[in-house]
Amino acid sequence: MEDLGKDTIASSLGHYLNSGNGPTIQLIDIEHPNYMALIEPDTAFWSLVKKKRLADALTNSSLLRQYQSKQADLSSEMKTLRFELKPSAVYFNPTDRCNLNCDYCYIPETMRRNGVQMSERKLIEGLEILKTFFGKTLPKGAFPQIVFHGAEPMLNRDAVFAGIERYKNDFRFGVQTNGILIDAEAIEFFASHGVGIGLSLDGHIGKIADRTRKTWAGDGIFKKVIDTLERLKGYPGYNVICTVTRKNMRSLPAIVDFFHHMEVPICMLNPVRCTLQGAREIKPHDRELARNYLMALDRAYELYEKTGRKLVVANFANVLVGIVGPTARRLMCDISPCGGGRCFFAISATGDLFPCSEFIGLPEFCGGNLFNGKIEQALSSPGFKKVTGRKVEDIEPCSRCAIRHFCGSPCPAEAYTINGRMNSRGSFCEFYEEQIRYAFRQIADGKEEAFLWDNWDAGTSTVMEITSL
After folding, report:
1. Model pTM score
2. Which of 65, 203, 250, 266 could form a disulfide with 208 if both were Cys (CB 3.0 to 4.6 A apart)?
3. How far apart are CA 79 and CA 87, in angstroms?
4. What tens digit of pLDDT does each residue of 97-153 get?
5. What would the DSSP string read from start to end of 228-272?
């Protein structure tokens, strides 16, 4: 037998499939009549393959050589996305308090009733500290994002407006609000300062929306939020978040109809985060959630076909972009490690620093205080490291899942509070799986652009494209 030499043997091994030495390709049934998905999980490389050509695809040395020629680039892209990004956004809570008592809130009730309200002086001081920090960590000319979050930031309106006015040339600002304190004057101020607005609304009629979102006295707020939506028609930078629970899940297609009718440009249909017990009590079952959620996406597509106007469901669009152009993701919940403590962090009304707003009620994840320490120290603190060190490769059965880099096994706050440890699954595993199958079906049918933001791929580049399978 001819002695090929170690280098030649090592090189040839790379051409074998599923041997542990070459690319480990997995086939996924996407429940499409003509296609299946071929995925290499480590790099999130994929191709759609006609079922009648599966054998050719799996023995196609040309395909494997093309993949191997780009494998290093794909691996590098995934490594950068997962481990090398720097924080560029902050969820800033100017108050612990809220004028609502929503069933699923992740902030403990005692904080929302009696919590701290940050003074205008401290808010300005906090923004100055953040400006200095980002000035050292981000490229010159970059505009980090500050989202005034909550609880309800409009309860501290004067301080928030003062901060936006003073630092309007240093940050991109957003406000996430329940909407009932937004008046014409506030909208004029936000518009003149280019502030993004996020509203929360859980239904298309008061009977549905008010089941989970109500005042401390138990009164519904649907009508007040609709009044705000009417005022925002035509506003260039707003979106609506619908938190999906057992109480509104079956209404998702009707909610999509309503949002489209109200000319909402972008919405999020977010499965409830089960960090606290109240949310767990209204968690929908994965399979039933998936069925209604996919019906809502179908309805969004039908409305686009009928009217030519998109209603982008941003959390699904982000999953879809995570497949077709990973670096164009706008949200960082469905990648591992998630964005918490890595791409963004959160600040409570006392100045305490947390990896994400979901952790504000969990003191063991506090990394320090904005006013009494350095942000850099918080980012490397044990509480932050628990989150930024949570990798899907360390979670069973996620480590063996073909779609692990399209899902990311969210959410670490859920995983920790439900299971008592970080290296465990969060909620909605089956739901994410069905959502990703659906995404691949839209790609197979050439419909993906109807679900995505316009110009979503600006600034991206194609590393590898295969069109012949």
Report:
1. 0.91
2. 203
3. 16
4. 999 999 999 999 999 999 999 999 999 999 999 999 999 999 999 999 999 998 999
5. HHHHHTT-SSEEEEEEE-TTTGGGHHHHHHHHHHTT-SEEEEEEP
